[in-house]
Amino acid sequence: MASLIAGGVDCDVHPAVPHLTSLLPYLSDYWRDQVTTRGMVDLVSQSYPRNSPIVARPDWRPETGKPGESLEDMQRHVLDPFQLSYAICNPLYGVQMVFSEDLQAAFCRALNDWLVKEWLDRDPRLRGSIVIPTQSIDKAVAEIERCAQDRRFVQVLMLVMGDTPLGKRALWPIYEAAERLNLPIGIHAGSAYHNPPTAVGWGSYHIEDYVGQAQAFQTQLTSLIVEGVFVKYPRLKMVMLESGVSWISPFLWRLHKFWRGVRMETPWVDRASLEIVRSNIRFSLQPFDAPPEPETLIRLFDHMQSDELVLFSTDYPHWQFDGQDALPEGLSPDLVRKIMIDNPHATYPRLM
Amino acid sequence: MNIQFREGLEAASPPTTKTAIADCDIHPARATRTELYPYLAKRWQHHLEIYGVHAYQGMMEGPPYPKAQPNASRRDAYPPEGGPQGSSLSFMQKQLLDPNNVQLGVLNPLNTGQGIRNHELSAALCSAINDWQIDKWTSKDKRLKASIVVGNEDGLSAAAEIRERAGDKNFVQVLLLSRNVEPLGQRRYWPIYQAAEEAGLPVGVHAFGFGGNPITPSGWPSYYIEEMVGHSQCQQSALASLVLEGVFERFPKLKMVMIEAGFGWAPSLAWRLDKVWQRLRSEVPHVKRPPSEYIREQVWWTTQPMEDPERREDLFDVIKWIGWDRLLFATDYPHWDYDEPSRVLPAGVSEDNREAFYLGNARALYGIA
């Protein structure tokens, strides 16, 4: 494996909310009462069943509780051994599945405050993503503006499968706020399950949902590019988290061919999609979905025609690699430095 | 792309000077609205006149995403005698088959009985389309071969249609579309695969169709380009479903052809499936081997629309990872995004690979001498 270097930025770690009751101290009296009197249960998404092998590495799985719920474990498993300068916390608690914008806004606010108190305040290497209630654009923007006052929040977090394609204009106030406040939009694997998790309907299996994340990222990239998000917000960065990377180039070849054919339909798109991706889109490293042969990896990175697209991630505590082998074989020392340090800092202006 | 068709051009390049090719995705059209009526019972003719066709999408006429050109077809493909593009055999011969020396042309009719909510009507229309393919096309030009179009949402009636046509040399495959009510690996479609395997016919899965699901996993997109690019994502999900439901394990002689959805994504999908299967195989014990093995052995890909990298040689890496023996050349005639046979492969491809790509693989798969 390529050698890790000290001072890297892990762009995708997942602190777990132990239980909905963990958020009670961060809810208003009204919502605390709602949660308890209505008997609301823990918000666990089907995207990440707690005992699924992919959800925690065997040696990262605690004896009790949810994988990722202990700061001490995270320090011992990744922050210390990988000698990280920063790790960006992306909570995957199932608040996006809620339909009521009021309830969702209350949960998101509590989740963000919980992250500050239970994680960011307890380790100076940790940074946070703002989870937003997308059922209401107004409330989402308000939550971004509220949390952004804390410089330790470095991005806004959305799921790759929500209610609508992410390029849709109704969502643009979120992007306006993010660009204005120097916050990239992190788009993470997972579904609100408000739509079937594949474009051809409901599959049968968890494995099918997980494989399907890559196709969801592809349709979202198309949407973001052709709707013109980056024409309107040229400084906005978006980071595809837990997306896989080996599909990027063939996907862009196809998008480019059709854009050349039917660009009259979206005349505001003034640049080739590969150029837009180079300037505005980044991808987290894990899960690295290419075969282990270095020669294949070298070809894949060459196809991307850029060494700035990929950002280091362990995807802690998910099981994407073993031991310290977070970097696939075949990366040059220069590329390792770009992936672990330079690219994350160029992407997240609030890391300093 | 649109190509100006001129008499002089044809004279300058007689077919005998061109290497023979197979075109594995040709779309024949009806010249008139009622062209299928002779093949339909009176009951269904009346039904169509009064109620029309209710699909799994809202538009009574035309597609919900307006095409880039009328009928998504080349502007130069209107037959001189009138009718829509692709509706005249003589003009198809003159514009496509003769000048390109097409030795094998596989017909994939669209806008048939597939994706219709009334499953009885669906079966009747599909059967009619199959009769029509013989009468209007394959019986009149031996280069053309038909696809058995089946009522996709009713596996049993679809299987019956396949069994009825099995052994008829006019047909070389069974045709499905990628977007259905459920992902294609689901049990409701298994009778189709069983009948196809028994008949020794590949199942082609062509991009398009409607099954009532939003065409992205995050809802309905806005634009035609999103639908077109998105066909490759729909196809990936359909193929993942076929692998993970164990269709290839259950029907080991079944061959499937991914039609008009690109192929550049195939290696990445196979790698991803393998990697995730290593972790989660206990959930799908019926998938006994790494998913990439089933794909490598049982799946073929038509080429159009070829992915188009800035550096053409990058595509060769992808073809090498898939296998030169698994690609089937296709033009998609008469559609606007037609791939011109003489331009899709740059120099530097070996003679063997070139022959396999343009003709050999298709002849072997479809059993054409």
Automatic annotation (TrEMBL), chain A:
A Pfam family matched by this chain, by name?
Amidohydro_2
Q: What's the protein here called?
A: Hydrolase
What Gene Ontology terms describe where this protein resides (cellular component)? cytoplasm
**Could you tell me one molecular function GO term of this UniProt entry?**
hydrolase activity
The answer to keyword Lyase applying to this record is yes
Organism expressing this protein natively:
Bradyrhizobium betae
- Spell out the InterPro entries in the cross-references: ACMSD, Amidohydro-rel, Metal_Hydrolase
Q: Which keywords has UniProt assigned to this entry? A: Hydrolase, Lyase
Keyword Hydrolase in record: yes
The protein's superkingdom reads Bacteria
Ranges for domain Amidohydrolase-related? 9-349
Q: Name one GO biological process term.
A: secondary metabolic process
Cited SUPFAM superfamilies: Metallo-dependent hydrolases
From TrEMBL, chain B:
Region (Disordered) location = 62-89
Cellular component annotations (GO), alphabetically ordered: cytoplasm
Q: Name one Pfam family in it.
A: Amidohydro_2
The keyword 4Fe-4S appears for this protein:
no
Assigned keywords, A-Z: Hydrolase, Lyase
Keyword flag Protease:
no
The molecular function GO annotations come to: carboxy-lyase activity; hydrolase activity
* Amidohydrolase-related domain boundaries: 23-368
This protein's superkingdom?
Bacteria
- An example of a Gene Ontology BP annotation on this entry? secondary metabolic process
Which PANTHER family does the entry link to? 2-AMINO-3-CARBOXYLMUCONATE-6-SEMIALDEHYDE DECARBOXYLASE, ISO-OROTATE DECARBOXYLASE (EUROFUNG)
Which named protein is this? Answer: Hydrolase
**Organism in which the protein naturally occurs:** Bradyrhizobium betae
Ranked from the top, the taxonomy reads: Bacteria, Pseudomonadati, Pseudomonadota, Alphaproteobacteria, Hyphomicrobiales
